[in-house]
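Input structure tokens:
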């Protein structure tokens, strides 16, 4: 059949009211090798991913303990090929951001530089109780300048601003600005005096 009459969908070749599995039409595996080179637009247009974070925290005025109550992220990352995995990637990054903002701290011994908290007993990661219901919105975006598939990387998008959103929410709630992460109890409490 001609290219105009052919429809490729769900692993099927469809034409003239007939549907045939693509595997039946090929005698050998189909392979293709290609490459993309930067063109004139690489200096003219921005091809980055974008995100915005919204966070609500509760800070105990006596102990300085901070709890994230809500965390939301809205992201534009080009054409999303798999919404479920893209959303999960953002959820994971936002959870890492909570850890970066509140609990994760690598401590070195000042005498010889070795790592003091080198196991999970002393290096505190956020656990289920530390992570609220996180919501993610993925904006539909088709960026014809990015590449032929109109996709962009989403790997680090979820973590980039999450910790900043948490410490900004702490500042909004208490007036305490923590610039040395994580925002542990002692740092928040020192600013509440």
């Amino acid at each position: 059949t001609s290219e105009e009459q052919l429809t490729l969908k769900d692993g099927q070749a469809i034409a003239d009211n007939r549907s045939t599995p693509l595997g039946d039409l090929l005698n050998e595996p189909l392979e293709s090798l290609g490459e993309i080179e930067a063109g004139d637009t690489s200096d003219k247009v921005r091809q980055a991913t974008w995100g915005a974070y919204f966070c609500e925290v509760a800070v105990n005025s006596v102990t300085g303990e901070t709890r994230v109550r809500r965390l939301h992220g809205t992201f534009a990352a080009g054409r999303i090929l798999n919404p479920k995995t893209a959303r999960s990637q953002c959820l994971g990054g936002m959870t890492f951001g909570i850890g970066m903002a509140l609990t994760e701290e690598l401590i070195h011994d000042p005498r010889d530089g070795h790592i003091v908290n080198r196991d999970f007993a002393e290096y505190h990661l956020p656990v289920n109780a530390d992570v609220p219901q996180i919501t993610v919105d993925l904006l539909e975006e088709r960026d014809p300048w990015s590449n032929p598939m109109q996709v962009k990387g989403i790997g680090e998008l979820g973590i980039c601003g999450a910790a900043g959103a948490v410490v900004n929410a702490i500042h909004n709630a208490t007036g305490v600005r923590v610039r040395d992460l994580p925002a542990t109890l002692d740092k928040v409490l020192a600013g509440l005096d």
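The mean pLDDT is 90. The CA atoms of residues 150 and 177 lie 39 Å apart.
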